[in-house]
């Protein structure tokens, strides 16, 4: 059973233009035992939501009638959190988060709720959840739980996935991936080279400069221009990733 | 070839083709011939002993190499390699683009770069050094096919990824073996230098170089040079100044504060006390590690890597402490050239290093004038008091 509650505090986005990002409430709020407190602590996804909000603010600054905005939807699928629904809603209000709607579903139905809400990107800290959603054709990514608050939304594209996509016949999930990249690319183009509220970063792990070059060209042909590019050619990823501080990593197959 | 008279004090006249006083430190080890007796040594081609150890079919394969499609060797793991980080502007000549950036701003600069994406840049000041590193790698791979103790050149640039394709096209055009890069889009490269265990960082930006030095990474600033003389393509030659480059600046401080006489006294008194290490010491150490690999295969005489100390110190006095310090560190240097205050240019002209490190712009500029690729190590007391136009240390005139 899937139910959606709209957040009346927040102006709803245009359905066909907005970039719908769904985040699990477990990642946004840390609702411990019900100790009578109306408000939950913030979770690991909090800096991400703040960064998404900042992008929206800047987009509206450039153009007050901008419709290409992030539309954040909170997904609650585990029963424990469902019982906390009122706390989740009041916490949202308390922290001033721009969440458009709250979706509650059972664990089996959560992918259904994602599809129903036309989610373009599903973010979770749970690898299995991400894989499940991906199988049903919802573009999913793992939230980086280690990001400190940052001024800029940083998205890392894992280039090896970009190339692989072209070689294989596209799956539903890959189509979803490509349309998300295109949306991000368009959003990025609203801003100049400097002082952008979002930064698109390409990281190729295995191939050398050729792989990276091909990825840059492929992305550019889809209207996605990278700000930064890193070619590791087999060097360890984690030291570089910890410097890049992405809010989330876009990889095609959740294998690494 | 008459013997020129020698002045009092530490200055030695330059005679014949021996400029300055050169100590070949190889001489003191075993019964090896000095490199100075070049005529009596056989050609500096491949070491004959190593060829005879190879099977005949291996030689045949070597001849085929250029035409057969070679599989690109895998880059070594950063912790095993000697990583050299180079910025785009020292690897390539981007003068024109730099002007556009300064005069017209970032957006026009990017637009220009993208429009000229298929036009490769021409070589910059670090280019011949990088080529020489690759030549050493080729030889190391032949001798030790499974070893990862190799040079690894990483492009570390502040440029935005928009310039990426032009840089990649240029690397392809010049057939450089650079597979790793960081295009940070304006962010500081220092963290990435550390992540790659960088052993040496070369950049045209003195601020970044200083930042790297502060983080304990050997680094130097490079400049575009009008004249670059030809260098060897069979032997990598790296030359270092002594004080404030290989060694700390402690002795330079004494000289600057108390003058020449005090400097001599101090060095003599502390002859047996090793100097503290300077920012480039660890790079010399890394080179030594690779040199030993060649010695292990019988290539001591014509080692593809050769190191030089080019110092204003004097062989007879203050030089002793320098040599003893190196010895105490367990480091070897192939040739120590004690100039006793003479200009470094003529000596550098003679040895033709691929790169020369000095902490004083005066020497860097002097080297560049004769076509040596010289880079500045912005470290130590000399940075606070630039010495342009003032004579070198050990002149007989009274100190200021």
Beta content of chain A = 15-25%
The helicity of chain B comes to: 25-40%
Q: Tell me which protein chains meet in the greatest interface and how many residues each side has.
A: A-B, 28 and 31 residues
Integer average pLDDT of chain A: 85
Classification by helices and strands of chain A: alpha/beta
In total, the number of strands of chain A is 12
Q: Using only CA atoms, what is the Rg of chain A?
A: 18 Å
Which H/E pattern describes the elements of chain A?
Answer: EEHEEHEHHEHEHEEHHEHEHE
Could you name the ranges of chain B where pLDDT drops below 50 across 5 or more consecutive residues?
1-21, 26-69, 388-400
Strand order of the biggest β-sheet of chain B: 1-11-10-9-12-13-8-7-2-5-6
Task: Give a structural overview.
Chain A: It comes from Champsocephalus esox (pike icefish). The complex is a heterodimer of chains A (256) and B (400). Chain A has 256 residues and is an alpha/beta fold. Helices cover 38% and strands 22% of the residues of chain A. Chain A folds into 2 domains: 2-142, Rossmann fold (3-Layer(aba) Sandwich); 153-250, no CATH class. In chain A, the strands form 2 sheets. Chain A has a 10-stranded mixed sheet, with helices on both faces. In chain A, helix 7 crosses helix 9 (209-221). Chain A is globular, with a radius of gyration of 18 Å. By secondary structure, chain B is an alpha/beta fold. Chain B has helices at residues 48-52, 56-64, 88-91, 95-104, 106-115, 127-143, 164-173, 190-195, 206-214, 250-258, 260-269, 281-295, 318-328, 345-351, 361-369, and strands at residues 21-24, 82-86, 92-93, 122-123, 151-157, 180-183, 198-203, 219-222, 236-240, 305-311, 335-338, 355-358, 374-376. Mean pLDDT of chain B is 83; it is low at 1-21, 26-69 and 388-400. Chains A and B meet through strand 10, helix 9, strand 11 and helix 10 of A and helix 5, helix 7, strand 6 and helix 8 of B.
